[in-house]
Design goal:
single chain; Aminopeptidase; 2 domains
């Protein structure tokens, strides 16, 4: 189950794209004043962002990352914050804001290629055609920014930034299963700022000579595109399908070019604009038609140690999501996690697993409850695999298994805040009942199906 799409999520996604789009022109304006160097601008921006996230951490009583996750988080921060932001900030010393946004917009192409190399994903013929289009578009932008039709080396630096953010997305996949977007964004901003401290002596030397307008622009870049936008993006992702949220990014280069025109009275040349059109077309092609439909397998009862471990990991992910988005304290799940195998792995409990192309994608569990009831819990589908019928398949598998074990009913508690929950259960023969136990979830609803 995923939280319902609402107007606030749409507004959050739109605000994020607008704010991110303004960063390209803002950086270009500060660099154009010639006082603060590119590295100093990036450092000042992320010192502000780090302080902003520090305030958020205090207000929300943010938990600190686990020691075993620090290496992956630090590596993600190096690529997603340090390399990415230094790359496109230095690149904008020679590349226009509009052109930089067009190159950065090719990021999903590099993410797709990284996923092929390291996550076992695949592209079909449409996907590879999209990759070719995007490569052609980026090449055209790189040459178009060189004056006439000559290569601009700094465009390659921005291309490197785009590749860095693709590596960041791949590295982020696992931590984002257990940490909220706000938590993970805070960790990466803090870790990613540390290597930039190499520019601190120059920043302290030049900052007194910087115009107040430049300082305020950098503060804006740190608070809004650097911190607030990441939080808003995480808010939108939690409440809308990932594919829907990502579609808002297609407007970013257009908005960035418009902001640069209003703020700096500049617009990319014809070759750059044509390259941008090709790059965006390639990205859209890969995102919409580029991936083959992976085979879905409902394994049913998890019997091997590997399958049980996968169910446990999926259950922890949904608990982390409930903590982050429904306001449930993590301590609420402590007993369940401690007794997970006892509750769901004994003679009267079951752990159910579904895979997509061999990868654990969704899970559900049930346990004995009351007099002859099986309580289904922790139905969860990972975001990349949603809207493929996995939740429905797991509900049916749970009902069938409960019937085999001789249960009288299957009962469950869900929340009206989860998208599609009521429709799923009612169309599978469940009927509303009075809550049979206390529930911490907001707008809790109880259902039962007689077997």
């Amino acid at each position: 189950m995923t939280p319902k799409t609402d107007t606030r999520a749409v507004v959050a996604a739109m605000a994020t794209v607008v704010v991110w789009s303004s960063a390209f022109a803002g950086i270009s304006v500060v660099l154009g004043q010639g006082v603060l160097a590119a590295g100093q601008v990036a450092l000042l921006r992320f010192l502000v962002a780090s302080a902003t996230m520090g305030v958020a951490a205090i207000v929300t009583r943010m938990r600190m990352p686990k020691r075993e996750d620090l290496g992956r988080i630090a590596l993600a921060a190096l690529f997603g914050i340090t390399f990415y932001h230094l790359g496109f900030t230095f690149g904008e010393t020679r590349v226009s804001a509009g052109a930089a946004s067009l190159i950065i917009a090719s990021g999903p192409i590099w993410t797709a290629l990284m996923a092929i190399a390291f996550l076992g994903e695949r592209l079909n013929k449409w996907g590879w055609a999209g990759v070719a289009l995007a490569f052609s578009g980026v090449a055209a932008i790189s040459f178009g920014e060189g004056g006439g039709f000559h290569l601009e080396p700094m465009a390659l630096l921005i291309l490197g930034a785009s590749i860095s953010t693709a590596i960041y997305f791949v590295l982020s996949k696992k931590p984002l299963r257990t940490y909220s977007s706000l938590e993970f964004t805070s960790y990466t901003i803090w870790f990613g700022t540390v290597p930039m401290l190499v520019f601190l002596p120059g920043l302290l030397r030049n900052l007194p000579a910087a115009a107040p307008s430049s300082i305020w622009i950098v503060v804006y870049l740190g608070v809004f595109p650097g911190a607030l936008a990441y939080f808003l993006w995480g808010y939108a992702l939690a409440r809308m399908p990932a594919s829907t949220t990502a579609s808002f990014l297609y407007a970013s280069p257009v908005l960035a070019t418009f902001v640069a025109w209003v703020w700096q009275h500049t617009i990319p040349g014809a070759v750059t604009l044509a390259g941008g059109a090709l790059a965006l077309a390639g990205v859209i092609l890969v995102q919409t038609k580029g991936r083959p439909k992976a085979p879905v397998t409902v394994v049913g009862v998890a019997r091997t140690p590997e399958q049980r471990a996968a169910v446990g990991e999926l259950a922890e992910e949904t608990m982390a999501n409930m903590s982050a988005h429904l306001g449930i304290e993590p301590s609420h799940f402590a007993e369940e996690l401690e007794r997970f195998d006892e509750w769901y792995g004994g003679e009267r409990g079951r752990e159910l697993l579904a895979t997509v192309d061999g990868e654990p994608a969704a899970a559900a569990v049930f346990r004995a409850w009351g007099d002859g009831d099986a309580e289904m819990r922790r139905l969860y589908v990972r975001p990349p695999y949603r809207r493929r019928g996995l939740a429905r398949a797991l509900v049916r598998a749970a009902v069938a298994e409960a019937r085999v074990l001789g249960y009288r009913r299957v009962v469950l508690i869900t929340s009206d805040e989860f998208e599609g929950a009521t429709d799923l259960y009612t169309t599978e023969g469940f009927e509303p009942i009075e809550p049979y136990r206390p529930a911490n979830a907001r707008a809790a609803l109880a259902f039962a199906r007689v077997l």
